[in-house]
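Translate structure to sequence.
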């Protein structure tokens, strides 16, 4: 497995899924059934995937801008595949 870039998307303390970089796009993998409709969709950025998750989780509400992802160091997870985690509070 090659080292890549991935992001965990959390809403309200629960993991919605993760995005993994594929070329110049990010592919979403749902970790909860409520986000299954987004499974394997491609996005231009992790923020765009997060906005899609927010639209699913909070229908009828506009996504709120969030601060930049906080860097974390976890070498035990898939040889450094997930280098950032995005934690988002519920609105």
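Result:
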């Amino acid at each position: 497995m090659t080292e890549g870039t991935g992001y965990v998307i959390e809403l309200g303390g629960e993991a919605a899924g993760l995005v993994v970089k594929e070329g110049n796009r990010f592919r979403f993998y749902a970790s909860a059934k409520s986000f299954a409709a987004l499974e394997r969709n491609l996005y231009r950025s992790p923020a765009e995937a997060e906005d899609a998750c927010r639209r699913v989780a909070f229908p009828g509400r506009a996504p709120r801008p969030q601060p930049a992802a906080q860097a974390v160091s976890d070498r035990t997870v898939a040889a450094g595949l997930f280098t950032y985690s995005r934690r988002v509070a519920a609105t």
